[in-house]
Structures are given as C-alpha cells and as structure tokens.
C-alpha cells in the first residue's frame, strides 16, 4: 500500500503523505511551455500523451506521493454537450445551457467524448514513475458543476443567475449525478487509485440549502466511490460547518480550506484530514513557509494527516519553494 492510502486507513506511516491541489499546471515553466504550443485548453485535456506528460511533471521535480490527472472538472458539462472554452486572463466560458438536450444525452456518448481522459489514466497508471504512488482522479461536486453550467463562467463573489428557479433543475441535478457516477467508475477502471471531489463553490451556498445541493448529492457520490472499493477525499471549499459536512457525507478524508481554523478542525473532526495551509504562504520566504507548514504539521501530529494546501497552488509560485515545502514535510 501507499503512504497516502495507509494514512487514510489510519495505519502508521513512514512519512507524512504530501501532494498539492493544482500541482500540474500554471506555475511550472515546463507546463507553460506545452501550453504555449497548445492554445486550445480543452483539446490539450483530451490529448492523452501530452496530458500524461503534464500529470507527471510535478513528480519529476518533487518527492510527492501522488499525481493528480491533468484534466478539468468542466469536462463533464463539455461531455454533456455544453460548449466550453477558456479565455486567457478570464477563465472558463460555457455556452448556453439547453437542459432539454442535456437530459437526453446517452451514456455511451459521454464515455466516448471522455475516452481520452481514460486513456490518460491508463497510460499514466502503468508508467514506472507511478510505482508506490497514487494516481488521483477527480470530479467537480454536483453543486459546483451546477454553478458553472448555469452561470456559464466563474462566479467570483456571487452567482449572477437564479439557480433555484431554473425550470428543469431537479432533472438536471439527476443527470449531473448520473454522469458523475459514470466518470468516477471509468476513472477507477482506468487506473485512478483515489477520487477527489472538488466543491470549489460550496462557500457560496446558504446554509439552509446545504442538504439538497451539497450533502445529498455528494453523499451519493461518496457511497458510490466506496462501493467500488476506493477512497474518496472531499474538498467543500468555504463550507461553514466541516463537522456537519463530515457527519452527513462521510468522505474517506476531508480536505480543508485555508480560512478554517485548523485547531477547531483537529478538535472536532476524527476522520483523516488533508490540506489547510494558505497557498499565499508559498509566495513569501522560506523561513515563514517553514513556520507555517510546521504549524499545520504540529496541530495534526496525532491525527491521520495528508499535507496539502487550502486551495490550489497559485500561478506566481516559485517551484523551488514547493520543493522546499516537500522537504519540510518529509523531514518532519
Ligand atoms: O490539480 C491539478 O494540477 C490537476 C489539474 C486540474 C485542473 N483543473 C487543470 C487546469 C484540476 C484538478 C482542476 C480542477 C478545477 N478546474 C477546479 C476545482 C479546483 C479549484 O481550483 O477550485 C475548478 C473550479 C476548475 C475550473 C477551471 N479550470 C477554472 C476556473 C480555470 C481557470 C482559472 C485557473 O485556475 O487557471 C481552469 C483552467 C485550468 N484548469 C488550468 C489548469 C492547469 C489553467 C489553464 C491555462 O493554462 O490557462
């Protein structure tokens, strides 16, 4: 078994497992090099040879325990027939949502469109560099996908559309969940050893709506992943009550954001914990980085803990700082 899976299973580990959200991408010159020659981001995600290279790039540099596939949560709306492109310095732009059409999309059509992602997983999981490492597959949570599909772009601080009065909402939610299950199953069959669910916009939902839009759909996906024999890590960024989330959703491990107090988490949550440190710390200096990393390591020293950040690595991060951070964790 790998250190990551041992940690999630509450077994003793020889060192603290570490990997980073958004480790494959923007801050690495070798990624930017490939990216500059591939202007169409969706096409790049659907090129298994190149996305395999990008997936392995952080492993070539750092002593980390897992690779996360180079892909995107928005490939689900894309596979459902919604147009998707990425604009430089703006982010994703989705086409108008025609839910009548989306609800009728056949499962075969979805897996056919996403086949390059499954090939990427096959190629990567069989690479010698992956020995004793985990390969993390992922999906966006139902709520976060709903936000992108209806808002048609990143919401920043608020959502510009009335999601809750959308005419075919329940049918749309069910279709998204069905597609997420297919995507989870195919990723696992193709070599993903762990699944992470990114609920990047959980923090935008009112608490009285958590049940229907976050807890219930995520619980279905967590149970489904577990039924396939794999662990599932959930990252409900900005959620107001991590303890309640864990009680309802029951993920194998919970990834925390940088706004939540790690002391509160250590006190109140007894499932394996991942992440927490503010990615901005990597933009400061080594002394400060060491101090802050040690703070998280100390707080979670008696807990199954996977070192990671409280959100993705920022594009302006110096890769040598990431390397230094990995050394701090591994020497702890
Ligand atoms: O973690 C990794 O390194 C693996 C690859 C990965 C990407 N996106 C590649 C990517 C993962 C896990 C994601 C998840 C993702 N995508 C999330 C959830 C995590 C989070 O950050 O909250 C979300 C919300 C998206 C949607 C998305 N994709 C946005 C909003 C953007 C534009 C802003 C940005 O982050 O750059 C993307 C583009 C994207 N996805 C890039 C990469 C490497 C940058 C593309 C570029 O080079 O222009």
Explain this structure.
The protein has 332 residues and is an alpha/beta fold. It has one domain: TIM Barrel (Alpha-Beta Barrel), CATH 3.20.20. The protein contains 14 helices and 9 strands. The strands form 2 sheets. Strands 1-4-5-6-7-8-9 form a 7-stranded parallel beta sheet. Helix 7 runs parallel beside helix 9. It starts with a helix and ends with a helix. The model has no long low-confidence stretch (mean pLDDT 97). The site of coproporphyrinogen III (CP3) has 22 residues, from strand 3.
List keywords for this structure.
single chain, 332 residues, alpha/beta, TIM Barrel, 7-stranded parallel beta sheet, two-stranded antiparallel ribbon, 14 helices, globular, binds coproporphyrinogen III
Q: Which architecture per CATH?
A: Alpha-Beta Barrel
User: What radius of gyration results from the CA coordinates?
Assistant: 19 Å
Q: How would you characterize the largest beta sheet?
A: 7 strands, parallel
Q: Please give the oligomerization state of what you see.
A: single chain
Distance between the termini: 21 Å
Order of helices and strands: HHHHEHEEHHEHHEHEHEHEHEH
Can you list the strand order of the major beta sheet?
1-4-5-6-7-8-9
Helix content: 40-55%
The ligands found in this model are: coproporphyrinogen III
Q: Name the shape in a single word.
A: globular
What CATH calls the topology is TIM Barrel
Total helices: the number is 14
Average the pLDDT over all residues and give the rounded result: 97
Number of strands: 9
User: How many individual domains?
Assistant: 1
| SS-based class | alpha/beta
Low-confidence stretches: none
